[in-house]
Amino acid sequence: MSKTLARSFALNFHLSGSNLTAISSEKLTIISFYNPPSLPDVRHLHPILDLVDSGNDIIIGGDTNGYSHLWGIYSANILSRNSTAWRFGREMEELITGSGLICFNDTDNITPTYHHAASSADHLRSTIDATFGTIDLHVTNWR
């Protein structure tokens, strides 16, 4: 990031916390989040919704620890695994689509973003990282 661009952003203390960091400029807010699998739901991410009506463009990226067709299913074997990850995925879908945001993940060229440490087997890989944003933004070459 150029020094000029970096100076135009400031930490959004209202939103930032242990699993969520937000920086804002006059026209853009960028949010990075982590959804720990130990939490019972995605409620800690609901403050993101406060920004949707702010008029700023928003880019949100993070580790959902959830499965969803919205950001891509890497392996068909995952369909029968981990009910908590499926629940997180559904909750994230509701949060994102209910707020009018869109998912930027390239579901036509899915690459796993998580590899289970105990195995290199394909069925233990999944796509749990996702990028969302306001509809006016244009993302190319998502990875």
Automatic annotation (TrEMBL):
Residues 29-142 form the Endonuclease/exonuclease/phosphatase domain. It comes from the Eukaryota. Signal peptide: none annotated. One of its GO terms (molecular function) is catalytic activity. SUPFAM superfamilies: DNase I-like. It holds the Pfam family Exo_endo_phos_2. This is Endonuclease/exonuclease/phosphatase domain-containing protein.
